[in-house]
């Protein structure tokens, strides 16, 4: 009997030791599947993200009007928000892109002079960059990005179709989950879904407020400083601030380079750069954590990895959805006995349940 108990204990220990390896293999396979099925999963993930905001609105409308009319008005509101944000974004980026493309020869000459100056000061990499990276090359890259944005109409139509079906089926899906044979599993799924939706709403509310305040202050600062197209730069800062770390960095460097090329005054460009950097630093490191509190506890390293990972998997769309996916993963893993450590490694709070002891309990002989 004692031999059998020791054998059972050793098997349990081996199974426990194999869990991290199985988790890593499962993560790798999941990421490969996300990459291979990106055309299907990318619009589906965005639809689920939108449902976290649309469902409460549709529920409130359903309390005062028929359900079909509530769904229709909710979809109209979603389309209006998408069109408004897309139109303002395209207007700002298109204005700045036209300005740069109309003066491409001038900027190319400035670029060559800067490369020559770096060469004279012993920075040999400048010559390599001058042969490979140029203003026309950047313009072609920007034009390709604009072309890809124009091709996203099909993507958004698929997203709206998913959202419409989700608004119709979400109540039935909840009842199906509630009727699962294992009550603990269904409770975990429903609780994690509600908590994920709540954190997503907080995340977007905080990012929207911070981005709006940052964009307004950028526009006011550049307008007072006499920089052309201050409003467009403010809109660009508003849009880019939805992407943590990378977006604010681009919204700081690009206007500073534009000021340098426009005014040919390095001291003024440095002043603009440091002013925008201080603005982004204050909002990103003090005001945003103060507003969001512990609701979005996430390691900055995990946030950065999520942005790069999902950008690699799904392109520009992955840059935006990477952080919400990380929030969902941390939320679903937190209450799990076997996966709670993932949430803690991502910077989340400790799991609410204790990890089970891998060694079996022995009874008195």
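^ Assign residues to that structure.
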């Amino acid at each position: 009997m004692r031999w059998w108990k020791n054998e059972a204990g050793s098997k349990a220990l081996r199974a426990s030791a194999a869990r991290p390896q199985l988790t890593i293999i499962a993560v790798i396979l999941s990421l490969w599947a996300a990459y291979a099925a990106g055309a299907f999963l990318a619009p589906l993930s965005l639809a689920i993200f939108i449902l976290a905001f649309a469902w409460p609105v549709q529920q409130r409308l359903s309390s005062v009007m028929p359900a079909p009319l509530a769904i229709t008005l909710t979809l109209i509101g979603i389309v209006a928000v998408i069109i408004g944000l897309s139109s303002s974004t395209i207007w700002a980026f298109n204005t700045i892109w036209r300005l740069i493309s109309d003066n491409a020869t001038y900027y190319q000459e400035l670029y060559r002079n800067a490369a020559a100056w770096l060469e004279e000061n012993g920075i040999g990499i400048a010559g390599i960059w001058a042969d490979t990276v140029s203003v026309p090359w950047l313009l072609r890259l920007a034009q390709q990005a604009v072309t890809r944005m124009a091709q996203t109409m099909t993507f958004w139509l698929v997203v709206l179709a998913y959202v419409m079906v989700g608004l119709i089926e979400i109540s039935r899906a909840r009842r199906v989950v509630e009727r699962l044979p294992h009550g603990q599993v269904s409770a975990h799924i429903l609780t994690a879904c509600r908590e994920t939706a709540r954190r997503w709403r907080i995340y977007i509310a905080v990012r929207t407020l911070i981005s709006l305040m940052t964009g307004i202050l950028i526009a006011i600062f550049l307008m007072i400083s006499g920089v052309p197209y201050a409003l467009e730069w403010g809109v660009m800062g508003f849009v880019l601030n939805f992407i943590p770390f990378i977006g604010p960095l681009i919204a700081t460097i690009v206007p500073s380079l534009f000021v340098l090329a426009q005014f040919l005054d390095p001291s003024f460009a440095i002043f603009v750069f440091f002013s925008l950097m201080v603005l982004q630093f204050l909002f990103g490191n003090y005001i945003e954590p103060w507003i969001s509190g512990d609701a979005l506890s996430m390691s900055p390293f995990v946030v950065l990895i999520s942005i790069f990972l999902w950008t690699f998997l799904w392109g520009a769309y992955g840059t935006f959805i990477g952080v919400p996916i990380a929030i969902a993963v941390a939320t679903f893993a937190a209450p799990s006995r076997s996966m709670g450590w993932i949430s803690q490694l991502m910077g989340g709070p400790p799991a609410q349940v204790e990890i089970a002891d891998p060694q079996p309990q022995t009874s008195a002989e």
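Confidence is low (pLDDT under 50) at residues 126-130, 351-365.
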